[in-house]
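Design review, sub-item: ligand-bound model
Attendees: FS, YL, KQ
YL presented the inputs for the adenosine-5'-diphosphate-glucose complex:
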Amino acid sequence: MSRLIVVSNRVSPPVAQGASSQGGLAMAISAALREYSGVWFGWSGQSTPHYTGQISMHRVNGVTVATIDLEEQDIDEYYNGYANRTLWPLFHYRIDLTQYERSYGAGYERVNARFADVLAPLIEPGDVVWVQDYHLIPLARELRARGVKNAIGFFLHIPWPARELILTLPRHRQLVESLFHYDVVGFHTEEWKNAFNSYVLYEAGGMQLTDGRVRAFGRMVRPQAFPIGIDPGAFVNLKRSAAGQESYERIIESKGGRKMLLGVDRLDYSKGIDERLLAYDRLLTENHELKREIFLLQISTATRSEVEAYQDMFAKLDALSGRINGAHAEMDWIPIRNVHRVHSREELAGIYRAADVALVTPLRDGMNLVAKEFVAAQDEADPGVLVLSRFAGAAAQMKDALIVNPFSQEDVADAIKKALAMPPAERRTRWRALMDGVEKDDIVAWRDNFVAALHAARNEGAERPRPRIAAARGEG
Ligand code: ADQ
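KQ shared the predicted structure:
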């Protein structure tokens, strides 16, 4: 049987204990590897004074986990640098925050080559390789240069930016060309896929074939949309667990009959948290009758603290929520509960369940799993309402949410009012349609569809001669 080899920047083994703190990507990969006997390869998260390429392997729950340590310079240039100071902001349309440093690009190429050096000998004939996310775009090119002929797929968890934006990246052509060493390149939505195809057709002079593949740089690749999902059944179990029930009851008691708006995010500028709070401020300013009737629970967790753009975000969020609380609070009512902590999956499920309205208003998001988790945790008889940004990939699937423009305070405030006033029958109808989608496009469908596409690509590859293998490029 062919093995599945998953490669991602960080490896988060699928242990039952501790799974409660796993984030979106880690949850998705754990679910994929639980099904296939596979290897999960990536950075250990640890630094070493001198890079050795020494691989540490162990088996966890039927999955072989293989990791390497990186040098401080690698971490700084590849991870904190090119991945999180260059590609993340650029791909989220924030060219104002994007740092274009040659040393970051060189570190990115170096670490991808190091990953390939260690990984290539582990790959056996018949294995399929599935590379995850923007940290590892050049990995297939590096593996091909080392003679790996297996099917290799890539999945991008974040948006693919509009063509005009990616042109601001020095050596954008080299980055896109790297993707042509994969057999399948996956995106969450047709929109991100079309943005990629637009670059291929209009910037790289490529062409699209009738079967959906695109040709450029003398090679061919299949770009395809694979919307990621969650495990909705697991979420129902989480909310019914003792910890889920307890957090639900704690919130219900503390609501004191008020309606609760909920935001749950990694503290990231792409998530639109400040804009959300400003929309809420406006709602309270213009609708005094809502005061004391509602409150907002905003849960934001720290992330990427090495990167400057993230360092003052807590201070700014605290200042903003403090100002809004100061302006509107009364002696027995506070409009915003501003919480910075990581909750277990069970607690989170109970919190989602107790919310009346979820505010999922990113300015740009590859998919957004919080929207799907909120839907999965609702009670069928009395579900809450999802307010969802049109700029989240999830909006393409979750059309029965109240879709908003997160840049417009008026639009978000109007949607909150509509959600609060929505009759129970409409809430149930919308929720049923949303839940049907969450159940249909779940994590299993995502995984199986991608792996099937990769196997099909492997069979296609066996029937026709492989395109020529270009030499690996150095960082210019
Ligand atoms: P993220 O940007 O991390 O993922 P998202 O999809 O919303 O965004 O996933 C966040 C995850 O973290 C969710 O599973 C959520 O439950 C969890 N989480 C957030 N705050 C938490 C808290 N306080 N306590 C516990 N858990 C918390 C990236 C892309 C997304 C894409 C995913 C998967 O940016 O667009 O949906 O990958 O592809």
